[in-house]
Specification:
five-stranded parallel beta sheet, 5 strands, binds shikimate-3-phosphate
């Protein structure tokens, strides 16, 4: 079995679930945002501020391409699956692509506080803006995913178990 790739909107729990999944599968874990920050030697917000979103998307695409060939459980960023070139890369990888789908309420709840500030896409955005952006992105996730997992009110471990059952 190929290790899964997690996609979905910010705050869905891709990193936390990815960690739980890698532990349950006894496979290494990689988080694309962390790979990006380690490669750039800079945080994503500061890279965004200095270079803008288009430059970030370019780096994200290159690093996604490089890390698709590795056999890790991979958590992507919230915008990764929304880029056409990345969708093609994900499809070509033939790895199971899992969309972690959260309700608006769970998303806003998970993003409130510090996490809001850590995400440049959310800067100066209201909860309604975030809900609108999430709605606008859903068709990208739907198009790219092999499987949808609803995450509301579930622990990362329970979600990981559900993914394992459905992909095996
Ligand atoms: C982004 C989501 C972030 C990160 C970057 C852009 C987005 O990842 O890649 O800030 O466009 O949704 P998370 O989903 O892990 O927050």
């Amino acid at each position: 079995m190929q290790n899964p790739i997690l996609i979905g909107f910010m705050g869905a729990g891709k990193t936390t679930v990815g960690r739980a999944l890698s532990k349950a599968l006894n496979q290494p874990f990689q988080d694309l945002d962390q790979v990006i920050e380690a490669t750039l030697k800079q945080s994503i917000p500061s890279y965004f501020e200095a270079n803008g979103e288009a430059a970030f998307r370019q780096v994200e695409k290159e690093l996604l391409a490089q890390h698709l060939s590795t056999e890790n459980v991979l958590a992507t960023g919230g915008g990764t699956a929304c880029q056409i070139a990345n969708q093609e890369l994900l499809l070509k990888s033939r790895r199971p692509v899992i969309w972690l789908k959260a309700s608006d309420a769970t998303t806003i709840h998970n993003l409130s506080g510090e996490d809001w500030q850590k995400r440049p896409i959310l800067a100066n955005k209201s909860a309604q803006d975030v809900t609108n952006l999430k709605a606008n992105r859903e068709h990208f996730y739907r198009k790219t995913a092999d499987m949808i997992i609803q995450v509301d009110q579930k622990t990362p471990e329970a979600i990981a178990e559900e993914i394992i059952q459905r992909i095996s």
